[in-house]
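Handout, page 2. Input:
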Amino acid sequence: MVWTLEGSGDLNANLVRFEAGRGVGEHVNYEVDVLVVGVSGSGLVGVGGEEHPVSNGHIVFVPRGARRYTRAVSDDFVYLSIHQRRGPLRIGG
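Output:
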């Protein structure tokens, strides 16, 4: 992670950078919707079995409950991940 928003009560924003072939593995987040905004380089965002190309200025909406992943296609793929701040971690729930 390159940068994260601090001090906001309701919003979580993270600037994330990956080298080619790297990213966030497939997972499901049942808590929040996410906007992924391309900043530089190029990558892919998988959402519910479909791949969406992301580069500077492209936005992908990822609804909560969807199976998702990100993967850098170029070196220095940078994107902004924006979502509502989550509550504290809940174990077993």
